[in-house]
Amino acid sequence: MDAAGYKAVWIALFANLSIFLTKAVAAWIGDSAAMFSEALHSLSDLVNSIFLLIGMKMASRPADMEHPFGYGKEVYFWSFIASVFMFGVTSMGSLTRGYHQVVDPHPIAAIELITIALLLAMIFEMFAVRAAMRAVVKDVGVQARGFKVLAASIKNINRVANPAVKFVFFEDAAALIGVVIALMAVLVSELTNNIVYDGIASIIIGVMLGALAIMLAYENRDMIVGRAAHPNIIKRIGDVAMSVSGVVDVKDIKTMYIGAHSLLVNMTLQTKPRLNIEVADDVVDEVERKIIKKISIVKEINIEVEADDYVFDWPRQKKNFDEIV
Questions:
Q1: Is the pLDDT of residue 281 over 90?
Q2: d(CA 173, CA 122)
Q3: Which ranges carry the Cation efflux protein cytoplasmic domain (predicted)?
Q4: Cα–Cα nearest to 158, from 59, 227, 213, 74
Q5: In angstroms, rounded to a whole number, what is the distance separating the alpha carbons of residues 233 and 217?
Q6: What distance in Å separates the CA atoms of residue 88 and residue 22, rounded to the nearest whole number?
Q7: What CATH superfamily is the domain 231-324?
Q8: CATH 1.20.1510.10 in the chain, residues?
Q9: Domain at 3-225: CATH code
Q10: Which residues make beta-bridge pairs with 301?
Q11: Listed residue (157, 194, 197, 169) closest to 181, CA to CA
């Protein structure tokens, strides 16, 4: 189990629990559509964090006869379920509540309480986003400190292999944006005495969360089907193979994620001509050893050598053949 992803999900879970309780009380007392959407959002985030923890726990099981490559893809399945839950509960609920507020607006009560609740939620979300950004940077192995973490996390988010880290990052970012939208809508509604802005904010939050849910569902579906590694990782695998004495070319490299930090590699090598079988086998063993050592994400590797690129040590092979006959 990846420590960075595990820690990020636990932080998100406790943050979402605190935020949900704060928003739920304010939404119940204030009767604001935007506040209701944010409470629903935090409830969905809380449930999604639980789904992610289940997925990470299930994915940590060791390989067995039925699953020789392990259960690493469990985390993608549960992340997909979390995306579906986000779309069905949070997005649809926010859209419905916003629509009713626009069509049949009613006054917002306890505006001070709602404002305080949203400001507190904003502080909680900022801490959660900060932890998620650090998890992204750690996952991709980039060194960054201070404000550089923000730029590094945004730049490298598509390189993240762990869907839990990616999900939490987008989820927390969307939560922070949603809080800002809700706060602005409530204040504008109060200043203009036009409650429609409250409903519009709820609809905007619903659309944003629906789009996020669809995007994350597509990402996890892609990983379940069998996504290849990032081109940079594939290039590193080829470079390591070419550094081994006896290898003259890498003909083909196929990769597939079999877990958040587990990569399956199938590759075809071309070795120097006139190598006997024993030497060619030693070259293959050295390539495999170096790749696994230098690229820790590679957990399973299969290497083939093109048949025409090495030859039998025929005198020795003929002697063995004669002895058998």
A1: no
A2: 11
A3: 232-306
A4: 227
A5: 24
A6: 23
A7: Cation efflux protein, cytoplasmic domain (3.30.70.1350)
A8: 3-225
A9: 1.20.1510.10
A10: 265
A11: 197
pLDDT in tens, 184-205: 999 999 899 899 999 999 999 9
Q: Does residue 165 register a pLDDT over 80?
A: no
* pLDDT digits 0-9 by tens, 99-144: 999 998 888 888 888 999 899 888 888 888 888 888 888 877 777 7
Task: Please state the rounded mean pLDDT for residues 82-87.
Answer: 84
pLDDT, average across residues 315-324 = 41
Whose tokens are 């996504």? That residue is: 227
CA distance 186 to 3: 39
Q: Which residue has the tokens 């926010």?
A: 94
The two three-digit tokens of residue 106, written as one number: 């009613």
DSSP-H helix ranges across the chain: 3-30, 33-59, 74-85, 92-103, 111-140, 148-156, 163-192, 196-225, 231-242, 277-294, 314-324
